[in-house]
Amino acid sequence: MRDRLEEMLSFAAVARTLSFADAARELGINASTLSRRIARLERALGTALLRRTTRRVSLTEAGALYLERCTDVLTRVEEADALVSGLGGAPRGRLRVALPNLFGQLQVAPLLPEFMHRHPGIELELSFMDRYVDLVHEGFDVAIRIGTLTDSSLVARRLATNRRVLCAAPRYLRGRRPLTKPEDLAHQACLHFSFFADGETWTLRRGEERVAVRVRPVLRSDNAEALRLAAVGGCGIAALATFLVGEDLHAGRLVRLLDGWSVPDAGVFAVHPPGRLVPSKVRAFVSFLAERFAGTPPWERAITQARLG
Questions:
Q1: Does this entry carry the keyword Transcription regulation (predicted)?
Q2: Hey, which of 59, 145, 165, 237 has its CA 20 to 30 A from 213?
């Protein structure tokens, strides 16, 4: 049974990384040992789990089916270990976390030294990326997601609200007629985030009132930092998350527009695979972020005194 668990663990690592070299490095074994384990597993099962060429590794149909069951078994083993270790002391083990690129860098990374000092038994492995991550197939323990959750199979905890504000640099606003209503945006140079669900129509909200405005983008980008830099540089008006522009607003490099109006909020969530027993390392990480983001999150505190344009 121990050999089979090793083989399953090895197969899951190769299936996740699609690389024997990367999987061997992750497991701390040499590539020949890893290859023997996979070959032994395939012989025992009587079918090929992986397709191997000189350039790439991919899953066979049988491999994809086996990975689902294999992941479930390994998760249950980890849950059992977590239960026992949780009874015996502090959480420990490697914790793989997927983070949105900018939010992870700006709002999570600065908190990590405190978390690591508080939980020295946990080894963190962080991946910063904006693409959708399949937690189970890619082997992540927990992910931070911003927006509307669509995967109902995951366990989610809301950590904070992702509030977005309309803003521009004083340089852009100088000499222009003040904006008094959402419809005024149609005649402005706008900096447009390509992932907005409504395309180039910006929907603004004030209480229960909603107004949709077709904007005229002078810059389109799927990178919010590029839009922030353009806004600070006086290129136009942007609708950006407060976690990104909080310091700019506080310092006066950007000013808020259309007081009371905002792009509809989204949520900041911690998500992890379901299970009857949540590993203590996952509970520790999620609880830590929930504690630090409770009430008014730190990026919102920085702009409470920011002036309006």
A1: yes
A2: 145
